[in-house]
Write a structure and sequence with these properties.
transmembrane, TMEM82, Transmembrane protein 82 isoform X2, membrane, transmembrane helix
Length: about 290
């Protein structure tokens, strides 16, 4: 006969309850990923603003970057964290691998003259993939940790601190960079005036390290679902062949596939003949 005393014995076996029990950890991973995207977005806006402020022909773009949308930034951060939470680490793993392969194949097929603008486009369009890479890396590194939730809470605190610092840097630069760089009494603005050109290179190194860890974590997370090595080989072999053929085709037809940001953005580059302007427009839209 059914008894309420036996209820706890079968309730934990429900998959939905297991998912709910792990929801806080997944949500914390999503918050870390969203904060990482926010840091990248704010630093790119700082770089674009400094470049526009130093060029009299880009005053309109400078004013657009100066516009403050604090409420939309909060909504964007919360929405991205929610999306990364719902997507899960398995889907995020495939997103990281797919973007990394496209990025490598794109960089290999680039001419030396257009490499700088294409890298900036990569930094702009990799934001969602960056969030997926951070969630994959955290899920893999924290798997089986005795104090996983506490570790993730500390990670969220550090990520929020970095995100707040990057946002305050962008606000400071957008409001006071021209004044401080002209009067030469602010160390931050003087540092950007002298070394802003090196900011994309630093961001590129940080992104390369993040995606390297994310790719290793993604492969490990995907392989975890296979019971034997033969199953893993049957999965990875056709996938590797397909992407190898895709890379070869992209290098033979660079005009159709150049740039990972899609055909629309690439057509704008070809039509306007100004890759930097297109990169700046994408940065303003982000």
């Amino acid at each position: 006969m059914f008894s309420l005393l036996s209820l706890p014995s079968w309730l934990p076996s429900l998959p939905s309850l297991e998912w709910v029990s792990g929801l806080p950890d997944v949500l914390l991973q999503g918050l870390v990923g969203a904060c990482g995207v926010s840091v990248l977005n704010n630093l790119l806006k700082v770089y674009f603003f400094v470049v526009c402020a130093n060029n009299p022909e880009r005053q309109l773009e400078k004013e657009r970057l100066r516009a403050r949308w604090a409420s939309l930034e909060t909504v964007h951060l919360a929405g991205l964290a929610l999306i990364l939470t719902v997507v899960g680490v398995r889907v995020a793993a495939f997103v990281v691998l797919e973007f990394s392969l496209r990025s490598v194949s794109t960089l290999l097929s680039l001419d030396k003259g257009s490499r700088g603008s294409e890298k900036l486009q990569l930094y702009l369009v990799c934001q969602y993939s960056l969030g997926c890479g951070l969630t994959c890396g955290l899920s893999f590194l924290q798997e089986g940790a005795p104090h996983r939730t506490l570790n993730l809470l500390l990670g969220v605190g550090l990520a929020a601190l970095l995100s707040t610092g990057a946002r305050r840097l962008r606000q400071h630069v957008c409001q006071l960079y021209e004044l401080h760089s002209g009067q030469r009494y602010c160390g931050v603005c003087l540092g950007l005036l002298a070394g802003a050109h090196s900011l994309p290179r630093l961001l590129g190194r940080a992104l390369a390290m993040t995606f390297a860890v994310g790719n290793l974590a993604a492969v490990a997370l995907i392989n975890r679902d296979f019971l034997t090595t033969s199953e893993a080989v049957r999965f990875w072999m056709p996938l590797t062949i397909c992407y190898t053929l895709l890379v070869i085709y992209m290098q033979e037809h660079p005009a159709q596939w150049q740039g990972p940001c899609g055909g629309a953005a690439q057509r704008r580059v070809q039509c306007k003949g100004a890759p930097w302007r297109t990169v700046l427009e994408l940065g303003l839209e982000g």
